[in-house]
Specification:
The protein is built from seven helices and ten strands. It is of the alpha/beta class. The chain has a single domain, classed as Rossmann fold, CATH 3.40.50. Helix 3 packs across helix 4, helix 3 packs parallel to helix 5 and helix 5 runs parallel beside helix 6.
Length: 233
């Protein structure tokens, strides 16, 4: 792995207003993530998993401390700079798929490339490559309502990966899937991680996801309660 971390988090704290006081969702987080990791941020609801993922994804900012994402400080980026970083370097996969219902599969996957202004013929090749990665080249003209849950999540993966981002953030990506589809999705992401060296970070408490990750970071009450490397052949 590259010696320089793609994510560097130092004494990170995040507070939210709560009544007349405040609630501390993250309380002094110190973490480093290297290129090509396949890592799970694990903990019960309310432990701070999604808050941490949102800060790494520049969807939120630290209250205190530092979060450096690909060398950029999440706390000092303007809204425009954050959006540009997400557009070019970060991919997102959610449990609810978030596909555009009126768009075809091809158009859903193409959307991030339109935002980037990628030229038409290159765009088509990139979309077809991404759909081949997830095994959905036969569904390019289908719309989300015609897809199963597993197929919809594979489209979401293709959309996240089509621009070949440095980091993919997945928030409970298997929550709405049965066991078979969950394993298919996880095997697809594992394959992309190994082939493209993309850093994957999951926020999860799903045992199926936990069985695939190669590093487990345990959060409890907004603090890191454990950090374990899993050796897999």
């Amino acid at each position: 792995m590259n010696n320089e971390p793609v994510i560097r988090i130092k004494d990170l704290k995040k507070h939210f207003p709560s009544g007349s006081g405040r609630f501390t969702a993250l309380n002094g987080i110190d973490l480093l993530f290297s290129k090509g990791e396949f890592t799970g941020i694990i903990g019960p609801s309310g432990s701070g998993k999604t808050t941490l993922l949102n800060i790494i994804g520049t969807l939120d900012t630290p209250s205190e401390g530092e979060a450096l994402i690909l060398g950029r400080s999440a706390g000092s980026l303007s809204a425009k700079e954050s959006a540009a970083l997400r557009k070019s370097q970060l991919g997102f996969i959610f449990q609810t798929y978030n596909l555009f219902p009126v768009y075809t599969v091809f158009e859903n996957v193409e959307f991030p490339l339109l935002l980037q202004g990628v030229e038409s013929s290159q765009r088509r090749k990139m979309v077809l490559d991404a759909l081949e990665w997830v095994g959905l080249t036969d569904k390019i003209r289908s719309r989300p309502a015609q897809l199963s849950g597993g197929e919809s999540q594979r489209v979401a993966i293709a959309r996240a990966m089509v621009k070949r981002p440095a980091i993919v953030l997945a928030d409970e990506p298997t929550a709405n899937l049965d066991a078979k589809n969950s394993h298919n999705i996880l095997q697809t992401m594992e394959k992309l991680n190994r082939e493209l060296r993309t850093t994957f970070i999951f926020a999860t408490h799903d045992e199926k996801v936990i069985g695939y990750v190669r590093r487990k970071i345990f959060l409890f009450d907004g603090k890191v309660a454990g950090d374990e490397i899993i050796n897999k052949n």
